[in-house]
Fold each of these.
Amino acid sequence: MTFRQARWDEPLLWEVRPPREGAPEAHLPDSIPPELRRRKAVRWPELSELEVARHFTRLSQMNFGIETSFYPLGSCTMKYNPRVSEVLARRPGVADLHPYQPEESVQGILAILWELERSLGRITGLPHISLQIAAGAHGEYVALRMTAAYLKDRGETQRTEVLLPDTAHGTNPASAAMAGFTTREIPSKDGCVDLRALDAALSERTAAFMLTNPNTAGLFEEDILEISDRVHRAGGVLYYDGANLNAILGKTNPGKMGFDVAHLNLHKTFATPHGGGGPGDGALCAGDRLRDYLPVPRLERKGRKFHLSYDHPKSIGKVKTAYGNVGLLLRAYAFIRAHGEEGVKRVSERAVLNSNYLGQRLGEHLPRAFKPLVKHEFVLSGAPLRERGVRTLDLAKRLLDEGVHAPTVYFPSLVEESLMVEAPETESKRDLDAFVEAFLRALHDSPEHLREAPVNLSVGRVDEVRAARALLLSWRDLEKAGAQGAGGAAAGSAAHTGP
Amino acid sequence: MVRWIPGNGEEESLLLKSLGLGSVEELFRDIPEKARIRKIGLDPPMSEMQVVREVDRLLAKNRTLEEFDAFLGAGLYDRYTPAVVDGILQRSEFYTSYTPYQAEASQGVLQTLFEFQSLWVELTDMEVANASLYDGATAIGEAMLMARRLSPGHRFLLPSTLFWERRSVLENYAPRTDMEFVEVPCDPKTGRLDLGFIERESRRDCFGVLVEYPDSLGILQQDLPKVKAAIGDRPLIVSADPLALTILEPPGNWGADIVVGEGQGFGVSSSFGGPLLGLIACRHRDARMLPGRIVGATADGAGRRAFTLTLQAREQHIRRSRATSNICTNQTLVSLAFLAYATAMGPKGLAQLASELASRGQELAKALREVPGLKAPLVEAPFLWEFAVGVEGRGTDEFLRSMFGEGVLAGSSLADPRPGARAPRFPGFLTSVGERTDTAAIDRYARAARKVLGSPTSGGAP
């Protein structure tokens, strides 16, 4: 164990150099009404370029990234983000395009988006695509808006309920509620959808059933065709949450499984970077049933020309400014083109192989929830740790000390003290074995060390309870609390405790 | 072929052997035969060099902003970003990292987000900001839903000048059938808001009021500081331009309850419309109603300052169907770009850029005012670097197309392009100056406009 993270005690920007007080240093044109002119300049420091570069470089050294660490994060698909995509996305040919330029002047990028749509249509078996999707949750929301419009057209407005398994990602119920539906959770059986419970829940009020396959336990829903039949017979829309698509490329697809609509997280399966939490990059893929309701504009091809068409009377309209996260869409395009048919299939084969291998090895040390054959991820239970007075959280923090990221913890919630582990295709056997070694060192460490972890990072265990109580959410709050200075305690006295 | 899957094809057999399997297909035996596919239908693999060449071949068919005299804006701007900013963004610890749920391994991202939140608080003079939303339009949508949580009522007041695209996004954020939009009229000559209307309507079952600063026609409404007094305790949402806030009185000073904005102009290129950056800030008392991730300061066990995601009980992964929003993935890296750009520019650099652009905006309006057949600005009201222009005697689209033929991207139409859509209340286009707009470019614009408007039949695009 040789990992030590940098520890810089890096000051906040306002502490590097205090901002100057007074009016803005600028000469405004006379046309701006005096009552709207800023009286006091923005409180913001003047730093030299080296000060700027050093500040952010030091901060970056206090952060894991894919190029420093393995992220065995279940449901997150943290794979290598090819460097070439970063180069391509910065080409002036895409970076210096404005979305409101005339179509004739952007035929090249439209050709790329067209090719990407076609590839995603083939990958999902759902040929009608919108790339105007910011992230997975946004795709869910848009699809449910489309579902609502579809149901309204059919006069089926009594369909107000969205069904989901109890293993669903939290975004599923949140999106459904935001789109104006009520939600109902279906209890799982052995980690999969219980057909009897599904039957009991389906009714003339069912608008949609949201499912990911493989599901969040890493299990393939073997009854998927039966599920699809039953949902359709009940009149519902079957929605595919594409968070776990990395497991099935070239083996099956949402269209073949009977799904009506699917969102894809291009920042997972198609290797666009996670960016510390975003920007993500989405695509919404629809079959014939919901096609007409996709957002506008839709990309169309007329001969050799590409055209952004707004002539879709049933469309729900716009869901975002412009056409999507194009800089990221280009990265996904590069990933698919480079891998091609053969490579894209190998992505899933290797991801599933890696996860089953890791599952077998770690399963010798902690109990595995559900059956051993998994797809891209698997779930362990940290419940036995309790006998030693420690928890899954302690194990996760201790793993950080090894220079690897922790797995997803406490999700899915139906497994006690759960750890959800995913090993994408870009991890080598050597790195998987190193992770197992690190995991075992952590697992067998003393309870004291586990509870004290982490000790090798820029800070020790962070007090989240105190953060929620003190609510110091900006530099202003720190000032009011008299809590400036990186070396000292932040939350000496709470500035305010909220309502 | 690219080497993004390790082991050169040899590791697979080692892994299979450990699992006691003969073939990788055995790992997919749980997929029912009827759901199986044999091929996807993608093209054959390419080397990295081939991909680069193919992308470059296609991108060469684009004509970038540099090839025109470009006057496009409407919230998305072509601004120069100091090189140090991209150097920061290309730190792989930033761009390849995951959401900072494991705070101890993520202090870098967490501190930058804390600084980003603090910066939006300073620019707006509000109290609490989140770590980002998707873009300025969805931020207005989220702010409207937040206002709905803060206040009873069913009606939402919005500007009659609101850009159709933002309006359409907003309609998609208002799924409840019991929500009604009410447009606030403004004087067609002066752009002044009808304060009496706002005061009256805000007392009729209204849960929130939206204003833009400047608005979708570029207008700086001078009565904005009076709106809060007119609506009382109804939430006031202000959609503000971040660069404008470096020289304009911040909305927090005139009573805003929620301030949103589009942050793309700070540190990322327009990139054909994305990624963008949704900004939002509110008052302390309403922090628990905010959508999205929030970073707070705290300490570690030894009392050292540390940062962490906080108030997570509002969010979808905890609260599920009762979350304040469904948002999970946000725009963190673009928040970092925003912060790094503002830091690299400094307060003086930002305010000087803003005032310089505002001056050039006046210069452009002066030049276009002299062009027969153009009404510039369309509404005689104060503006900064953007304003609406009317075209007399012929269609806006035809004019813009002809200008394109002259090498000038004069602006973006204010009309909703959907067939059968309502005609815009202010027909015309929005024109916007940028850092590339010098006096020569303004001259070429005016000259091209004269030529286009002077000729009885305008030429098409090249």
Amino acid sequence: MKLVAVTSCPTGIAHSEMAAEALEVAAKAKGHEIEVEVQGAAGGPPIGAATIAAAEAVIFAVDATVRDRDRFAHLPAVEVRTREAIDRASAIVDQAVAAAERAPARATAAAGAGAAGASRTDDGERDVLASVTGKSTSKGEEVRRWLMTGVSYMIPFVVGGGILIALSFAIADAVEVTQHAIFVPGEGVQSAAALGIDLRTWFGVLLLAIGGTAFSMLVPVLAGFIAFAMADRPGITPGFVGGLIAVQVEAGFLGGLVAGLLAGGIVMGLKRIPVTGTIKRMMPILIYPIIGTLAVGALMYLVVGEPVAALNAALSGWLGGLSGANQILLGLLLGMMMAFDMGGPVNKVAYAFGIAALDAGNFQVMAAIMAAGMTPPLGLALATVVRKRLFSQEEREAGEAAWIMGASFITEGAIPFAAADPLRVIPSLMVGSAVTGALSFWFNATLQAPHGGIWVIGVIGNWPLYLVAIAIGTVVTAGMVILLKSVGREAPAAPAAPAAA
Amino acid sequence: MSPTISDLITPALVTVDLTATDRRAAIDELAQLLEADGRVSDRATYVDAVWAREEETGGTGMESGVAIPHAKTPAVSRAGIAFGRSAAGVDFGAEDDTPSDLVFLIAAPEGADDLHVRVLSRIARKLIHESFRTSLREADSSQAVVDIIQREVEL
């Protein structure tokens, strides 16, 4: 099979070159032809149009935006980070081949469309998408990447703002701090004496003001960077403005998502208008910011803002109304999502849902999500202690670090184990996290900070039972891992060493 | 005239027993080799430049145990690569926290067109191959390391 790939990393060239080499080696080992374009500091020549036209699938191993991505728009695509390509090139080549095989008609459609990246296909659904976004490839993947870009830029704001707010509530009276303002227009910044409160409360008021300011940026940052992922720098202004309007019209996170997608889509559309000369130079300076922002702003205020706000209110209401069995089901589902890819897109979707719930005033969802994100590393750490012989020396060392990472809600601490033995480890993690998520809901644990693990115990509601939920999930995870690893080991070893131990 | 790999790395630039245990000290230890060999004229400035690059990228360590700290600065008088092997490994910020036991410190003078980048990309590409890493881990002397690199990374 003929494949093409683009590798790219934001700084330096080491990772993009290594990913390129890894993909070349893996593809050739499997008897495929591959041509890789390295987009980076050194970079190589772009892949020729004829090669792209003849290719059956494209792999993007990228940590940064792909230049001239439209060239590949007609190809089924697999998109990963450079590090994934370095570690698992073979599996990624298989995915690309599978993607090409799933889409047999596309290669011929692509040949008909030529190498110019035109998005003519026989598939009506794909044509609709193309007209909206200017892209026609693997729309699910593409949309996912846009959303994840937005979410990943938003998370530092969530963490910074959320922890400061949680700290404020922890050190001072949560009701009292909200009754004062650190800055009063016309009177300036207020001292503790001026507010008539003690120093501890005053510091809480200060923390709340700073954290709240960071939080107020969440939706605009989300929208701005979704639009950035779609349309590059020209997407940022319409995206941020659309996000701010989403906040004004009380459309919340859903509004932010819509604003970002609208802004990105509109600027992508504007970029497709064929222009030359002076007009072309004016596009990024004048046309994108003015027309793009006007269009997004008008749509947000006049068309989509209010329906999305209603939807947002409905979501909040649904969350608030969830009870009993439904909550536990939600806990099971979110728990499994948190453990499924340990910091990957599915995990982030669950996490983003938790933030949306937090925003809507439901603190149980975030508690369940954090607990479920803590048990994968904790459970593996426990397993390495209880059954040393099932783990390699490296894994046992990783287990030591996994205690801290798990306690700090860094689910990624489980990745070394999952990468080495995914079929046994990932289901085990999902079971343990699902149990923890459900228990957290059942125990009615609450969390107002979006991160922090065990270190924010002071702001967790029902914390003793919350710790119980985490402990049970940790034990379940460890038990599952040990069970599955033992079963897998004994089966092949049985003929050689029967009835050993 | 563009340099070949043998102009860039010699046994004097290799240590198979890196003693430093933290990233900055490891960079400095390898930079001393470059300085003693007359390739770095201002070690402090060079190390600062390498450090800045580490901080900017979050570390050049990779999960395979390899790190490629590097900088292009006027503090380098002649291009070179220092290589250090650490028994315990040094944290170079790899995504999975794997300590780096194979450390390539690359020095390029200002105006070295894309030499810096070409050497880096050659080595980075070779490092994908497990056999290359294994032979570097098994080499028993500085000369053996240089022989392996020369054989594998021909410019």
Amino acid sequence: MVTFLQQVLNGLTLGCIYALVALGYTLVYGILELINFAHGDLVMIGALVSLSLVRALLGWGAPLSVALAGGLAGAIGVCVLVGVALERLAYRPLRHAPKLAPLITAIGMSMVLEQGSALLWGRGYHSFPDLGLTHALSWGGVVISPLQGVIVLGSLCLLGGLLWLVQRSALGRAMRATAQNPVAAQLLGVDTERVITLAFVVGAALAAVAGLMVGAYYQVAHYTMGFMLGLKAFTAAVLGGIGNLSGAVLGGILLGLLEALGAGYLGDWTGNLFGSNYKDVFSFATLILVLVFHPSGLLGRHAPEKV
Amino acid sequence: MIAGLARFKRLWMLLGILILPWAVEGLLGRGWVRILDFALLSVLLAIGLNIVVGYAGLLDLGFIAFFGVGAYAYALLASPQFGVHWPLWAILPTGVLVAASFGVALGWPTLGLRGDYLAIVTMGFGEIIRVFLNNLTAPINITNGPQGITMIDALHLGGWSFARPHRVWGIPLPALVGTFYLFLLFVLLALFLSRRLEYSRIGRAWMAIREDEIAAASMGLDTRRLKLLAYALGAAFGGVSGGLFAGFQGFVSPESFTLQESVMILCMVVLGGMGNLRGVVVGALLLAFLPEVLRPLGDWQQHWFHHVLIDPSTLRLLLFGIALVILMRWRPEGLLPSRARAREWHTS
């Protein structure tokens, strides 16, 4: 039972991070029907920028809270800039091109971001400075670190804020209108290009936060870390129903739980044949199963291809 | 005289290609013949991916996985790993079948869906194959994990080994040149098959799907089956290339089959011109030689700055990424496009 609770807790932490990243995919997909392959790399950039900043600030003798705040702010700033540049330079000129073009551009941009980061930060692994938040508290055998608490609470707050933004604010209304029918929204006075930029800004900011969290959680950052994370977050978005915000959150948390429990138990069940070394396979198998049996996801509507 | 030359253009070209490895060996050294051999395998891969991306318009980001499956099929059937040593003519068809069935198994669940899902599923598939290659060591050791499989039998047909120099009619034939001719044979065969497919009923159906899937389906085309066929055939070409790669290199490990390799092949097809064989061949050759052109960069930096500022392989991948973005923006039809494809890109 203790192991089970422990795995649920670990899965929840991971799931919150997935959810933050998945929201970025779903926001953009909901409006543009474009899979932004480079989104995972924004998380990587967020992790590396915040790592460098936190390390530098701590080196100058800043207190931990200031270093963290500075790292977070810097990461958000850089990610938002990169996200907007991505939209302006790469995706916007292809708005009316055949479907294949933005997809190939997206994979190209992902490559550019990865290798650009490799140039700036080198090809090695960077260890995250010790934040002192990993000091574990035991709770009847279940070990919880303050960092896990911060990750879960922080992401839940962000998710709540985002839901409010989209469901209740005027900007959110413009976003939903654009997602539903861009031409009609434009006719009614919505500046759709601004809405699209906004979707990238919000997605990139969330990715930056997720980058800091994932870096601090695993205590390591690397220029290729965005790829698997992005793939999993995309799976989470599809699982919840792509284009649906609450779906992305639900999908992220479910996927995190699935992965943690799968990695924890599958090894025991199969006599250690399929242990945690296969954990990346679980999310992929989930993606395939969802696509085969319920492509619209848990909360998504069925969207027929438009002519 | 000029007219005569033009008339036998193809013959002259073929003659030129046949002399090429000798010229390369004489002018640039033996190492470059080896690079040329690997380049031919890239061409084979690009021809395969072109069926999927160029003809049928499906984005496959995990194409290297089929190359890997073919390579491991060869490695397992002709090495001390299981102690079996099948001949080439038995291994290659097996590798093709295995690779094609992987293609079908992957395509089956996803082809009914939108194209962008396929892209991400293939991307995941490529990674998963690598996870399996890295981990399939228990309960029986199949892939030998990250160390890979070594001591793979060299390519040979009957008693003729392509890893040894021979003497033909008194002329010495170096091993690498012999291998070049073998690979060339496969490339020509692939070109022929691909060309026949392009102009067949199936090829026209693929292009119809590429241009407008809904219209194609409403004209009565079984789009799902056709896409699956494109997928399986593309994978089959990848499987052949992989088998030859394993036999040529004598060693396979999961590290050869990363996403970056998939993107490189995609880059070859896109740069040359999706859907146009000549473009694809040119694109593949250009990009296969790029790393060799960039390699001295590292030495120069070492010489001038005393340490390597920009790693050549990072630079290469960065250039691939930039090339993809720029091509899609200004010349989506590639350097040598097919006429139909160029018009398609610019009207929609």
Amino acid sequence: MPATTIAAPAALEIHESGDAALRVVATSGNAEADWATVHSLAGWLATAGVDGVHGAVPTYDSVLVEFDPYVTSARQVRAFVLLAMRQLDFTGATVREPRRFEVPVVYGGSYGPDLDRVAAQQGLDAADVIARHTEKTYVIRCLGAPAGSPMMDGPDFPFPVPRLKDPRLSVPAGAVSVAGRQAVIAPATAPGGWCVIGQTPLTVLDATREPLVPYVPGDELRFYAIPEKDFEDLAGKFLEARP
Amino acid sequence: MTGSLTILQPGHSVVTDLGRTKGPAFGLPVNGALDQFSAKAANILAGNTDNEPLLEITALDFRMRATTDLLIAVTGAPLDLTVGGRDCPQWEPVSVRAGETVAVRGIRTGLRAYIAVHGSFTVPTLLDSCAPDTVVGFGLKLLEGTELATQKTTAPITQPHYGLPLFRLGLTKPDFSTHPVIDVTDGPDVAEFGNTADLLFTSQYTVSPRSNHIGLRLGGALPERQLTSEVLSRGVPVGAIEVPSREELLVLHRGRGVTAGYPVLAVVTSRSLDVLAQARPGHTITFRKTTVADATATHRAACLELDRLRSTIQTVFGLLGIGAGERWHELSPASGS
């Protein structure tokens, strides 16, 4: 099935992704606009509560819409997505006021085993890497794997950060990492190939609470450096939005 | 009246359901029973609604003891089922008397079996599902001695006419094969693989022992991506076939991370994902191309088969006076409620 493209305001392609999902891609070429489009679309689908549509997974320029092919079909969901886009055109995206999160981080040492490697690769001092990592206000772009990781556009580094040649089998919860032009915090212990430059003592994910993670795409986040001796004091506290 | 059972030999078993369909929107994989057809059939045969918690048993032998009278149904891969030492059939409701041991031994040809218990289990849920999530550390651990409470107990169903089978349900059991044919549709990124995409349909693939609920790794001729540009992370469907390394194909199953940056070559159909869930390391797989329309029709035919089974079971159980509870009358999602 060829991709469908609709015209203004947001160019859109809809691709088949098996019998139980569609991939919708925003193709305006403007990253910020595409991100807003796919997240608005995902939000609209979630609140519409359409029979047979399980949910939507928005990332940067695309959203995966999953459905039960017994109750509905790729054809119907495709039609529904096009309808949703028209609806969004009329109403405009409702932009929620972003919440702010502040994340304490112990950088380097055993908390951030790749800090020196990243510094060397960027031609910076470790202190410069920390300064650049802490000076930016990040927008959480999407929730990724594993376990609702907050995916963010990375710090203002000279070069993209290469992934590790040999991914670690286990990266601890709270690990603060960079790769390519992205930054992330690990909510749960999992394998990982990103460069770990620090660790936050805060608990990001709690499987006994809903929502599991406290942030949603669009929220803002900043990091600040803390000395190693403060790690234990803060350990186990939950990451919460600034009041 | 509530019942219970005790796990004697957990093997490799979990309590699960049809999955956490709300999970992906929050970055959690859907998880849940890997062979959805067998899991639904087990629940239907036990007089439950399709999505109720049940046991998924992978590869290893399993035993449990009923503390109260129970009604169970065992589906999935071929195996030897005994209750209180008696051989019992799979894919049928089976009565278990208080104190009897249910043993599942010798799972073969396939990999996974399902045991549903009438009245299901009372277990913790996350986002409306009890399915274990190993990454976030959610799920009930089944150990020797774990006791599971069931919401009902069922007096034994006795066969008044000796020698006749108790049930004639007319269910077509799935085929289990050491060389399954797996239907796939073109993935959204198939064009990136150029002419090499067709290799998928001309070679055989062997299931690697490094396969699990997250994905199956398959050895064989590998299509190659013709581009080198970076791919932004995006949502990937269950069933996505990727070529992440030069050694193996990766077929994502229900435990897959919801986002990834690899191009999707093809997507396994819903019906064939059930077949893949039964593929053992060493089994060989052939892929066959289909269309989304045909895949949907095949999936719906299987669902209709289960609808017929549900209808038959409701009639039979109604006559026997089992399962007249409130839960019993819940409409399945497909009945347009």
